[in-house]
Amino acid sequence: MREFEHQWGLITGGSAGIGAAYAAGFAERGMNLILVARRQERLEELAGRLCADHGIDIVPLALDLLNPTGFQQLVEFLEQREQPLDLLINNAGLGHFSTCDQTDIARVEQVVQLNVAVLTRLTYQVLPGMLARRSGTIINLASRASFQPVAYMSVYAASKAYVLSFTEGLGIEVRKHGVQLLAVCPPLVKTEFLSVANMPSLAERLAMSPEKVVVGTLRALRRRKLSVTIGFVPKLLTLLPRFLPRYLMAAISLGYLRPEHQAE
Ligand SMILES: NC(=O)c1ccc[n+]([C@@H]2O[C@H](COP(=O)([O-])OP(=O)(O)OC[C@H]3O[C@@H](n4cnc5c(N)ncnc54)[C@H](OP(=O)(O)O)[C@@H]3O)[C@@H](O)[C@H]2O)c1
Predict the structure, then answer these.
(1) Which residues line ligand 1 at a C-beta cut-off of 6 Å?
(2) Full set of structural domains in the chain with CATH
């Protein structure tokens, strides 16, 4: 069913992983797309395929959201567009898995910048237009890590706690103005993220497919939820911090995420 025919959506991190799966899911349902990521070839290859398969329009925008010039380029592109934006998916995100003594400071700064600052800025960039039209949807990629402190990924988990809280807080506020915000909290997903973030190999074996995230997101949108955790078991696990002390949750993560090469 082409339920989003003639609409336009913008997906950050649309060249790979969950972003590419969102692009396929919304394209299949008739939505025209603006895809943002750094790798031009990947964007163009995906855009060509989705246009041919679904007869939609796609604008691939190759730019670096962490580069002020790249970010400004996107802002200007959005300001000059005549067609309204019906959907924004703030999907581009970074993780950094490391022990405390090997943390790359420049990298954790990028995690905060992309996961928190860019997501917030883009949300407020498109929100006024949506409020004026009393319609529009913003999907922000949080994580199962949004619910608890996580050892070896403390900056990432904290950034995703921000995304969940920000999205739910703003979401309840804008709901009565006809705009929908949804925070999506996936568990481990089989994408390049795991290797980019330097995650232990165990993570790969436990990961779900990005397509499952898309299905869960679409269901949550129809139910007009403020946030959704993807998967039954992950959903149950998000309840644990309500019953266990937070220090215990942190200590558990210390155990199961311990880097394989590290003795203690
Ligand atoms: N995979 C998981 O286990 C998991 C679990 C929970 C939540 N999430 C969240 O889901 C979202 C998507 O993750 P994923 O697993 O699909 O990651 P991924 O496979 O690493 O893809 C990340 C996407 O972001 C783009 N990107 C990265 N840095 C960028 C930058 N500076 N400017 C523009 N684009 C940039 C990448 O494209 P280029 O490299 O071409 O720029 C790519 O398209 C993230 O927010 C992540 O935190 C992932």
Answers:
(1) 13-19, 36-39, 42, 64-66, 91-95, 114, 141, 143, 186, 188-189, 191-194, 196, 207
(2) 8-256 (3.40.50.720)
